[in-house]
Amino acid sequence: MENNSTLKRLRNRYRMVILNEDTYEEVTRFRLSRWGVYTVFSVLFILMTGLTAALIIFTPLKYYLPGVGMGSAHQVKELRELKMRTDSMEHALKIQDNYLNNIQKVLSGKVISLDTNKLALPKLENSDD
User: Fold this and answer.
1) What pTM was estimated for this model as a whole?
2) Which residues on adjacent β-strands are paired with residue 19?
3) How many angstroms separate the Cα of 89 from the Cα of each of 66, 76, 81, 100?
C-alpha cells in the first residue's frame, strides 16, 4: 500500500506559475511532477560530473591538482632517478669548482701555507757497509 502511495506522489502533477509582481499577469506556467524534477536534476548532476571529469582528464588542468597528474608508476620512478642523477651531478660540480678555485689561488700565489708537520719516514739501511 505504501509503495503505491509513494509512486502516486511521484507521478502527481503540479502547476508552477510565474507571475509579474506588479500586474499579477501570468508570465509562464509549467506542469511538473516530482518524478520529472528528480529526473532533470539527476541528469544535470551526471552531466556536470562528466564535464568536470573530462575537463580534468583531457586538459593540462590535471597537473595543478595534487595526486591526479602524477602519471604512471614508471614515470614516477624515472622522475626519482632523474632527481638523484641531478643531485649527484650538482655535488660533483661543486667539488670541481672548489678544486679549480684552489688551483687558481695556488697559481696566483695567494695561498701559501707551509706544512709544518713532521713526517715519520722509515730509516734507510745502507747496503754499502
Assistant:
1) 0.48
2) 26
3) 29, 20, 12, 16
Dist CA 29 CA 48 (whole Å): 27
Residue type, 32: L
The alpha helices in the chain, defined as continuous H runs, are 2-11, 34-58, 73-108
Q: What is the mean pLDDT of the chain?
A: 85
Q: How far is CA 30 from CA 26, 79, 96, 110, in A?
A: 11, 58, 81, 94
- The residue written with cell numbers 564535464 in the block is 51
> Which tens digit of pLDDT belongs to each residue from 98-113?
999 888 888 887 766 6
d(CA 129, CA 122): 18
Whether pLDDT at 9 is above 80: yes
Is residue 1 predicted with pLDDT exceeding 60?
A: no
For residue 103, what are the CA distances in angstroms to 7, 91, 118? 92, 19, 25
30 DSSP β-pair partners: 16
Q: How many angstroms separate the CA atoms of 102 and 108, rounded?
A: 10
SS3 label, residue 18: strand
Q: Are strands 13-19 and 26-33 parallel, antiparallel or unpaired?
A: antiparallel
